[in-house]
Amino acid sequence: MPAVQAVETVDGWYCLHDFRTVNWSAWKKASEDERKQAIEELNQLMGDWEGIEKEKNGSFGFYTIVGQKADLLFMNLRPTMEELTELETKFNKTKLAEYLEPAYSYVSVVELSTYMSKAEDMENNPEIQARLHPILPKWNHVCFYPMDKRRAGEDNWYAEEFDERARLMYDHGMTGRKYAGKVRQMITGSMGFDDWEWGVTLYAHDVLQFKKLIYEMRFDEVSARFAEFGSFYIGHRKERDDLESIFSV
Ligand code: VOV
């Protein structure tokens, strides 16, 4: 079988999704002073991350997660992967991290494909540059899941011709566009970085719109034939001001 043409990607900020579970029984055993100190320290660290976002050197989102897979999601974007490693280590050294257990993490980089436009035309396009270096939407709800494109028998994405893949991605984009103003998406590529090929992070004002969009997309040819999904995580955006109520026991 002759090789098909790969698609070039244009890549932006690196992204760490860091999911944690709170060890409530240990947290409840901590003294009130210890708890106060731990929350204050996290508050400061989150303040630093927000400062970096203000300077447009990265972005930060904090969410509570519903269901047993995790309790919290700390999401950071940075120009380099090393910065993510550093901030993760710093976070792990905080007092509060002693009461958090790792639930899941995902390492990826903001990615745009070049099925619709040439990479060189994307370089000087401010709209594209903003999408590659996104300030995470301050929308109420977040949905994250990793995914692959299938490579089995007749349904092998990596054996499809470029034009055919471009056609399928165009149709995919058209379905997505129906949700303008309702769902925002950030696609991060993770080949070589993590266990799946892409991370899908969605934002919505109304949580039900995630289900509507994902359901509708299941019928798009590209999802119906080629998509394989990992675990879904769903949650709600929180601010530093919410820390006290989240951790009050
Ligand atoms: C708001 C919804 C929305 C919109 C508008 C949208 C549009 C677009 C466009 C225009 C493009 C192509 C250019 C690019 O940006 O790369 C993509 C690309 C991609 N998408 Fe998408 N997508 C959405 C939403 C959306 C969802 C919900 C999913 C998950 C699939 C599902 O079935 O659960 C998804 C997946 C992807 C992936 C994995 C890629 C990269 C595939 C590759 O092979 O490179 N995506 N997507």
From TrEMBL:
So what EC number does this one have? 1.3.98.5
Residue numbers binding Fe-coproporphyrin III:
131, 145-149, 172, 185, 223
Q: What class of enzyme is it?
A: oxidoreductase
Lineage top rank: taxon: Bacteria
Record-linked InterPro entries: CHDC, ChdC/CLD, Dimeric_a/b-barrel
Q: Which residues form the active site?
A: 145
MF GO annotations: heme binding; metal ion binding; oxidoreductase activity, acting on the CH-CH group of donors, oxygen as acceptor; peroxidase activity
- One Pfam annotation reads Chlor_dismutase
Q: Which UniProt keywords apply?
A: Heme, Heme biosynthesis, Iron, Metal-binding, Oxidoreductase, Peroxidase
Necessary cofactors: Fe-coproporphyrin III
* GO biological-process terms attached to the record: heme B biosynthetic process
Cofactor, free-text remark:
Fe-coproporphyrin III acts as both substrate and redox cofactor.
Q: In the UniProt record, does the keyword Heme occur?
A: yes
Q: In which pathway does it act?
A: Porphyrin-containing compound metabolism; protoheme biosynthesis
Question: What reactions does this protein catalyze?
Answer: Fe-coproporphyrin III + H2O2 + H(+) = harderoheme III + CO2 + 2 H2O; harderoheme III + H2O2 + H(+) = heme b + CO2 + 2 H2O; Fe-coproporphyrin III + 2 H2O2 + 2 H(+) = heme b + 2 CO2 + 4 H2O
Known function: Involved in coproporphyrin-dependent heme b biosynthesis. Catalyzes the decarboxylation of Fe-coproporphyrin III (coproheme) to heme b (protoheme IX), the last step of the pathway. The reaction occurs in a stepwise manner with a three-propionate intermediate.
Family per similarity comment: Belongs to the ChdC family. Type 1 subfamily.
> What PANTHER family does the entry give?
COPROHEME DECARBOXYLASE, HEME-DEPENDENT PEROXIDASE YWFI-RELATED
**Cross-referenced HAMAP family:** Coproheme_decarbox_1 (MF_01442)
Can you say what this protein is called?
Coproheme decarboxylase
